[in-house]
Give the backbone structure.
Amino acid sequence: MRQIRILHVIGQLRRGGCELQLLGLCQRLDRARFDSAICWYVRQADELEEDFRRAGVRMHFFSKPSMSVWRFFERLRGVVKEVEPDVIHTWMYSANFWGRLAAVTCGVSGIIASERGEVRMTGLIDRASEWFFRSRTLRLANSRFIASSLERHFGLPAEQTRIVHNAVGFELPDREAARSSLRRELGLAADTAVVLTVGRLGFPKNYPMLVRVVGRLERSGSNAVVAVVGTGPDEDVLKRQVRGAGLDHRMRFLGFRDDVPSLLAGADVFCFTSDSEGFPNAVLEAMLAGLPVVCTDFPSAREMISDPRAGILVSCDDDAGMAEAIGDLLARPECRREIGMAARAHVQEHFSWDRLVETMSEIYEELAGRKRLEDRVPVEEDSGHRLPR
């Protein structure tokens, strides 16, 4: 039996949550069953191209910004014709439009469009394109909240959008060594509590709330230091806010890091202040590391922390509630350990790579089987049993 050919279409391959999920999927798919290719069209710093190549993925790039829209679309169609995929899987807004249009015009019937962020604004063209593609596309979302946003903005019934949650997985470093290393790096005493957060420094992470949380912790007498991992457009503004609040000694900015599992292993508590998210890997990774998580109560957070023993949810923008929860955890080591153990078990059961790869493999085989059935059965001989396009 020949391999199922999958072409992933995505705008860019920067080191972001969506791109890392795609990479993890490609690394773990059975190469005897699936042949994976990627087409992307915007260059970014810190790309994952070589990681995909090492995973055996065939790469196709051309620069959309350097050409006309018509030429770009013809180049994309050219890649589709070259790969001859059984399934085209598009990722995020731009690729969901252009990739699906190329698939339809090239006669590819196995089409998947993944939505991974809340749909916030739509125009007439967006709604018209969704109406055109809806009967031709299997829609995926990484949370029920994202599925509901597709329904609100495009009228796509949420129950018809398939939910495939994100996956995380890594070997946890030695905790004692990680604790010592992190405190040495930060210049802290061995018994100093460290609260960690990881994320892009920008909307909708609500880092001003975090600054207020740190202020409340200090006023309560806590010696905790909050370490912030990530970069982003609001970095300079945020650092000015911290200096203005006189909290430089309580907040440390670590920038981009490729050793996040070690940082998680060395911390005492993880916090997350976003107002809204699709399904943030940072929270799942903290839970997998066995950290007690204090997270704002945006909709997809309730999906990640569906077991109340596995984390603490506080209202969005409630700095008082978050500071109180963090302070309580720092004062109760046994409670931290119990919540961390429950969080790790929860993620291992519900958000493992094995589970995601099994689900996606079944979806790809389902759509590839549909294509092969359609290739074998001419439309005029179809007696009412043709699978819906």
In short: Residues 379-389 have pLDDT under 50 and may be disordered.
